[in-house]
Amino acid sequence: MKNITLNVSGMSCGHCVKAIEAAVGKLDGISSVEVHLETGKVDVAYEEVKVNPEAIKEVIDDQGYDVQ
């Protein structure tokens, strides 16, 4: 299990949190997603053999948020 913390801008409310958690959580190999609205960070635990950081970033980007 690997962990990654992403800096995500554009999040402003509870809806943003739910949208990101739901979208990333649907990816195969994700074990947990925790969005920290106040700091603009998203912590993700994932299985490296099933999903990679680029796929996680792409899903967040597709929701309309900027990922660094």
Automatic annotation (TrEMBL):
InterPro entries registered for this protein in UniProt: CopZ, Cu-bd, Heavy-metal-associated_CS, HMA_Cu_ion-bd, HMA_dom, HMA_dom_sf
Q: Where in the cell is it found?
A: Cytoplasm
Keyword tags = Chaperone, Copper, Cytoplasm, Metal-binding
Q: Which Gene3D superfamilies does the protein's record reference?
A: 3.30.70.100
Q: Where in the numbering of this chain does the HMA domain appear?
A: 2-68
Looking up NCBIfam families in the UniProt record yields: chaper_CopZ_Bs, copper ion binding protein
The protein's name = Copper chaperone CopZ
- Species of origin reads Metabacillus fastidiosus
Q: Species lineage, top-down?
A: Bacteria, Bacillati, Bacillota, Bacilli, Bacillales
